[in-house]
Structures are given as structure tokens and as C-alpha cells.
Amino acid sequence: MDKIKLNGMMFYGYHGLFPEENKLGQRFTVDLELMLDLSSSGKTDNMDDSIDYGQAYEVAQAVVEGEAYNLVEAVAETLAEEMFRAFSILEAIKITIDKPGPPIPGYYQSVAVEIERERPYGLS
């Protein structure tokens, strides 16, 4: 399947279980793989046959910088739902949300959640 990839988008959100995460917030890095048939847009050179990268960025920004969630898993699931609503030609999506330096003991760069979803039946 063809893919459009948006890599390393950075947003500031207030997601987490701990009060300091909800109050202070932190950076989140988001990677998207948007899966769809790009043969039409490749032939027509027409944006109407593809997904506008800027609009996809705006959807991601609205979710990650919007309502606070306890779990990054919930952020990813909401983002998948919003992407399917925004783009009727989107067939499947892979989302990775990276949370650098969460407030848990140990030494590591980050934790991340990755989900893959297909267009829900009946959602067009």
C-alpha cells in the first residue's frame, strides 16, 4: 500500500497520570504513516486526489495540543479517529507517539506508543 509519512512532528501537550504532567506539560513527537492509493494523485498531479500534508499536521496538532488524556494510548486512538474523519480516502494509519523523559525512575531517552488502525467499517 502507498504511504504518506509525516515524521518528527513536535507538539506540546498535557497528557499523563501525574499532576505535574498535567500542569507543566511536555513535548510529544508524532510520526504518521497515512496509507492510501496514491496512483490517482501521481497521474493527475491534483491535490484533491491525495491528502494535504499541512491539513494532516493540523489534525495531529489539534489532538495532541488539545484535550488532556491520562494515557498516550488514548491520544493515539483519538488521533486515528480524527484522521479517518478528516480524510475519506485514508485506508489505514500507523501512529507513533514518543514521550521523552516521562516521570518514571531509570535512564532512557523516551517511551513511545505505536498503533495501527484500518478505516472502521461504515465510516466514510
Topology:
Elements: E1 3-13, H1 19-24, E2 26-35, H2 39-44, H3 53-64, H4 72-86, E3 92-100, E4 110-118
Antiparallel strand pairs: 1-2, 2-3, 3-4
Assign a percent range to the helix content.
Answer: 25-40%
CATH structural architecture = 2-Layer Sandwich
Which stretches are low in confidence, meaning pLDDT under 50 for 5 or more residues running? none
Strand order, biggest sheet? 1-2-3-4
CATH homologous superfamily heading: GTP cyclohydrolase I, C-terminal domain/NADPH-dependent 7-cyano-7-deazaguanine reductase, N-terminal domain
Query: Using DSSP, what is the number of strands?
Result: 4
Q: Number of helical runs? A: 4
Q: According to CATH, what is the class?
A: Alpha Beta
Q: How many structural domains in the coordinates?
A: 1
Shape: elongated
**Topology as a string of helices (H) and strands (E):** EHEHHHEE
Termini separation (Å)? 19 Å
Secondary-structure-derived class: alpha+beta
Determine the CATH topology. GTP Cyclohydrolase I, domain 2
Strand content: 25-35%
**What's the overall average pLDDT, rounded?**
94
Give the biggest beta sheet.
Answer: 4 strands, antiparallel
Quaternary state, please? single chain
At a glance:
This protein is an alpha+beta fold and 124 residues long. The chain contains 4 helices and 4 strands.
